[in-house]
Automatic annotation (TrEMBL):
<keyword id="KW-1003">Cell membrane</keyword>
<feature type="transmembrane region" description="Helical">
    <location>
        <begin position="497"/>
        <end position="516"/>
    </location>
</feature>
<feature type="transmembrane region" description="Helical">
    <location>
        <begin position="201"/>
        <end position="222"/>
    </location>
</feature>
<comment type="similarity">
    <text>Belongs to the SLC34A transporter family.</text>
</comment>
<keyword id="KW-0812">Transmembrane</keyword>
<keyword id="KW-0472">Membrane</keyword>
<protein>
    <submittedName>
        <fullName>SLC34A</fullName>
    </submittedName>
</protein>
<dbReference type="InterPro" id="IPR003841">
    <property type="entry name" value="Na/Pi_transpt"/>
</dbReference>
<dbReference type="GO" id="GO:0016324">
    <property type="term" value="C:apical plasma membrane"/>
</dbReference>
<dbReference type="GO" id="GO:0044341">
    <property type="term" value="P:sodium-dependent phosphate transport"/>
</dbReference>
<feature type="transmembrane region" description="Helical">
    <location>
        <begin position="118"/>
        <end position="139"/>
    </location>
</feature>
<feature type="transmembrane region" description="Helical">
    <location>
        <begin position="383"/>
        <end position="402"/>
    </location>
</feature>
<dbReference type="Pfam" id="PF02690">
    <property type="entry name" value="Na_Pi_cotrans"/>
</dbReference>
<keyword id="KW-1133">Transmembrane helix</keyword>
<feature type="transmembrane region" description="Helical">
    <location>
        <begin position="336"/>
        <end position="363"/>
    </location>
</feature>
<feature type="transmembrane region" description="Helical">
    <location>
        <begin position="73"/>
        <end position="97"/>
    </location>
</feature>
<feature type="transmembrane region" description="Helical">
    <location>
        <begin position="159"/>
        <end position="180"/>
    </location>
</feature>
Amino acid sequence: MEDKPPPYSEKNGFYNKAYDASLDIAQLEGRKSEENRKLQKEKELEDPWALPDLENTETPWGELDTCGKILRVAWLITRIIMFLAFLYFFICSLTFLSDGFKLVGGKSAGEIFRKNEILSNPVAGVMIGVLATVLVQSSSTSTSIVVGMVGGQLLDVKTAIPIVMGANIGTSVTNTIVSMGQIANKDDFRRAFAGATVHDMFNWLTVIILLPIEVITGYLYILSDKIVNSINMNQDFEKQEFLKKITKPFTNLIIILDSKQITNVAKGEDVETLLKDCCVKDTVMQNVSSLVTVNETIVASVVEVNKTEWGMEKVKVCVEKCEFAFKHSGLNDHEIGAIILVGALIMLCVCLLGIVKTMNSVLKGNIRKAIRKFINYEFPGRWSYFTGYIAILVGTGLTFLVQSSSIFTSTLTPLVGVGVVSLERMYPLTLGSNIGTTTTSILAALATDDIRLPLQVSMCHLFFNLSGILIFYPLTFMRFPIPMAKHLGMVTSKYRWFALVYLIAMFGLFPAGVFALSIAGWYVVLAVLLPIALLVIFVGVIKVIQHKKQSCLPKTLQNWKFLPVCCRSLEPIDRTICGQFTCCKSCNNKYEDEEASFEGNQHNGIPTRSDNTKL
């Protein structure tokens, strides 16, 4: 077969236009591929965590006529009202979500706390705290149960401390769920998921470090005992619920629960339902009869005689019965809980979508820039170091007002997603919410008859969070939760199914598995978890060195190519999942683009990497 003639040669004396055209097309495609690679490289060099640029696409105010100005103001007011309405119902949906979980798993959570022989194992105590808090969707509820059991002398303080640590972890599941509401937008989801999981990472790291220290030294127990013994207990305290006063008028129309019944289940009492029966009680004086035994002398002999005595005592009586939608439904707690859960999740997703849309609509141009600048403001000069501590105080105060760290952090998560709040600002606000949520257990302790021991548990909760902050915040290089959350955000933005896997594994399978191991004893826990922990530490250290100074490592460890692809990348799993769900447009487009790019590069002789995945 003859070779194809060149476009021009003196020997042949002709010009091959077709060949020249094909060559031009190939060169053009090569240039385009080269430009695309350069753009991709520039994009990779950009900081993916930098807040997005804000462009003002609206017509300047000065260019509007009177009618246009009136319409803009009216539309702005309407959007603000819509935003506040969505925010209100979003908070209500979190309350419904908590109530639904309590109805479905509240009794189970209460029964878990009965098993004192298991709770004596600190690791089991932590995992029970995680699982119980996930079941009731509220660390306030789970810690209040623990405080009530300590007050009733069903638990001792040392046993309660690991459970409170676990409750601290379980409370962050709510904002992780909320972050998934922004899964449609890759960049928003990356930021939102990182903003949610920075709370998880802080709580897990704090428990991993402080639990062994507490088991060995008992410093939380000793410190809290000293402080409680120095406090004057002769004071009356009243619990304030600022946010619930706003949301109760709506939520009480649907469902009203008596959370104290979960504590009663934990104490071993038989409870038929968690639905509240009496909403208003009053203390009245009533004639109360009591049967007493007295000694009387009858015919020179002393005998015991039972007599009925009457006296006035203070008695609490029901003044007003509770009325709500599910009061006379005839359904049991699990059925009502399932309905509430489904409705709450739908309501949460709709409200979250509405919040994001109205927020993007309202916070445009100069308004958004001003709000973002205010929230992420850094003090000038050397004072910038103290900005984060002010944010911690703000987070503490706001969480105290709303009496729920879940509500506070879940409200911030969408703001992180849309780029109004930076991850670096979210971190100290989250730490502040951890401190603020301890006020709930303190108030619960002050409501018990014997204040001292329950208050000691609450103080342990407070000092546990303060200790974690002292470890993971003052020194910048010790703020490990931020890079860990960023890594999770990057992974979930590329493989969005990973968010659901993370949620199930981190708050379900892992605590349940460790709890099962802890029942078998310390040796089993150490035999299984210690090698895994050492492997994770080894991989983490190697990755840091690879990123910072790759040349210090042996050639084999300078990258992870010596491992099979399935051991260093989620790509094979992702391809399998996307292959199963062929209707997933984003998955199909992603791999079609990759294959087209690969084929184009091969056609133009551009070298391609056999694998671009990372561990």
